[in-house]
Amino acid sequence: MDPNLYPTGPRVTIRPWIDPVVDQLGHDPRSEYVERFWLGVIGPTATWIMRRFAAGFDTEPTGYAIDLAETATTMGLSYTKGPSSPFGRALNRCVMFGLAQPTSDGFRVRRRVPQVAMRHLRRLPDEVQAAHDSWMLATVRIDVRDLEQILISAGVPPRAAVSASAAALLAS
User: Where are the beta strands (DSSP E) in 18-85?
Assistant: First the structure.
């Protein structure tokens, strides 16, 4: 992460990153899916950070302030201002993998995380890839009409949403 984008204060604001599609279809950062498939991609510390942020949204759904040094210390990590400490590097991994975005006073953070991208999944062991394929076959069930509405609410033109939904139905 560009050090100039890193929030400068000891206290930062964590706000939800609103994404209608991921918010509807994604996985809670504390879920088994994240533990089984995201953990090997972003690492344990970034996973725990995402879990900590999700817990914060449970009580403060519109956002909340945290002290970076205190948060790092409560997680057993050292902290120095900027992205070079262990906590900063893990937070940077959340940004690099599209789970958080820096803002001038903190971060926008996904309340739910998307499915692991294929390019990241392919770096995991074959057994994990096979488990992911099985997981997706067993758990992804969506009505085509629901998919159309999700796509439209995310800004996809209605005609394209209908075409995409039809293609998804044929592929399933």
Answer: 64-67
